[in-house]
Amino acid sequence: MRADITSLFGLNIYTDTGTYVGKVADLVLDVDERIVKGLAVSDINRDLFDVTSRGIIIPYRWVVTSGDIVLIRNVVNKFKKTKKEKEED
């Protein structure tokens, strides 16, 4: 998949099941290998990620496609804390 890097900034990110993840704030680049390593995500969906930071980094290997939105694999649900886990904390 090829795209201008600047065309990704500000795009909404969704899982392939339609769950909103956040917005692309920046990219993580490996300049030696000349590849994108990840997406820096802001405005994250707090229902998916139990973090205190303002954003997260999503590995670029999760990206399925991009256009008007960025579509990623639905692996983020694996990181979501269940109600039972929250009660135990």
Strand residue percentage: 35-45%
* CATH homologous superfamily placement: PRC-barrel domain
CATH architecture: Roll
Strand order of the largest sheet: 4-3-2-1-6-5
Main sheet summary: 6 strands, mixed
Q: What is the CATH fold-level name?
A: SH3 type barrels
- Total number of domains: 1
Count of DSSP H/I helices: 1
Class, according to the CATH hierarchy? Mainly Beta
**Count of distinct strands:** 6
Structural class by secondary-structure content: mainly beta
What spatial form do the alpha-carbon principal axes imply?
A: globular
Order of helices and strands: EEEEEEH
Distance between the termini: 41 Å
Written description of the protein model:
This protein has one helix at residues 83-88; strands at residues 12-15, 20-30, 35-42, 55-59, 63-66, 70-72. The protein is mostly beta strands and 89 residues long. It has one domain: PRC-barrel domain (SH3 type barrels), CATH 2.30.30. A hairpin with a 4-residue loop joins strand 2 and strand 3 (35-42). The longest helix has 6 residues, at 83-88.
